[in-house]
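Please predict the structure of the following assembly.
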Amino acid sequence: MTEIWDGLTKAIELIISLDPEVMQIAGRSLVISGTSCLVASLICLPLASLIHFNQFRGKRAIVSTIQTLFAMPTVLIGLVVLVLLSRVGPLGFFGILFTPTAMVIGQILLISPLLLGFTVSALSGVSREIVDTATSLGASRFQTVWLVLKEARYAVLAAVIMGFARAISEVGCAMMVGGNIKGATRVMTTAIALEASKGDIALGMALGIILLFLALIINIALNRLQQR
Amino acid sequence: MSLIEVAGITHRYGERAVLQNVNLSVDSGEVFALIGPTGAGKTTLLRIMNLLEFPSAGEIYFGGKWIPRAGRQRLEIRRRMSFIHQKPQVFNLSVYDNVACGLRWRGEKKNKIAEKVDHILEMVELEGYKNRNARTLSGGEAQRVALARSLVLEPEVLLLDEPTANLDPVSTTKIEQLVSYVARQHNTTMIMATHDMSQGRQLADRIGVLLDGRLVQTGNAVDIFHSPQNEEVAHFVGMENIIEGVIGVSNGGIVTVNIDGNGLQAVSNCPVGKKVCACIRPEDITLALYNTQSSARNSFRGEVIRVTTLGPLSRVEMNCGFPLIALVTKISAEELNLQVGSKVFATFKATGVHIMEKEISQ
């Protein structure tokens, strides 16, 4: 139990002293997960709108598949991306394995089902009458979609926050396609895993607390944004 | 000239036919009321006119031009109309943004939008609510936002679906006044669905009766309320006295209808021997204790069966050899001391009787 207490004091110490290495790792975590969340949102929000606003065969099957992929293990994504990006793999010529770019790609694949699924259900929460009202007032199809996204903004933002949370907290994929290279691809979660395996429980704990602290700040910021 | 026209509209939801072969043409600047009980298909007809829904069969014309089933043209036509839905759906945005959205969608300039929105919010008395989230408003206020949002677009056609169904009388009056003011000012064509006949009568130039998905009769208020086409319409428009009889005598446009031995005089050209229904509006009947001399051709002695008070009016049910219902002011009912068993004379003009040929039962 003392480890938790030690971890807490150490975390406060590290934060107050602005420990350069910890700050760098935390910053990298934020940038990588932030980028993957942003790119995934840019892909998934329009895609989810397309799925929601169109009737087509196999729509239910697609939604079920997306929901199943929520449970995708991070190491499996890591494995797939590793195979694709490895020197002998089909995308090996890019030479981006063990770079932050590879990690971003892995995280995008990881959180896209989550973003898609929750955005579709967020849009379904907007009543048919709202859509009709917008159409009656002369909104084009695109304008209607935009309005519905705005109507569902709380739920959509919740989906985005969830995607970000999953990205910043995953370790399997970051470890496999990033490689936990000090100064290059080491992020909070891989650092925690390393410190724990080295036996420095307190430092691992401290990093974990800082990670949660970061998540808290991000959530507060996004909540502020959505209340405007 | 006809601005909006629907021809041969039939619409089905699954097996159920909601509209059956509806033909309607509304002229530019006309105020048209669509009356009918709930579930008659009024909303569906308005939705089809607003191009929100595709009818199962039939065509729509706007300004004489046929509207295709797909394509950009539908949006362009829709932007010349505005539809106020029965339940006001305000967007989860500020009142200002709610009212501005239609103009923004039409690509209107920012300062022009601000000017128009401010003006219309003043008209609906919501100028102080600009920055409030519209979801926090009361029902009446939300309906006014919905109204402002539609009126600010200055549509050529305004479609209203029971605009005051869920409102208190004061809000109802406000909205009715506002709608007719704006419509007059911009010469807006209005098509209004309502189950409230007095509202239709008061606001509309022309009325259509929609019963069970069929547009049974269209005409002005006098046509609809005094000369209903058949028993169904007569019932719906409050013709409480529908009395069956046979034409006994026909003489120069005046007929005598034989009702179980009683002769009732009416203006009609029906031939002798025809089975008919004589319709008398209860408010067209006057009551007296003695048979006074008057120009009215019909006077029947009857016994009061029941007196019901309806606000300032009293509804008097009588037996004059046939059942008759009269609507008189509460004061006159009291002056006549009408009670169950009282003997009264019911008097009405021959012109107050509408004769309908009895339909051959289907």
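The mean pLDDT of chain B is 90. The first strand of chain B starts at residue 2 and ends at 13.
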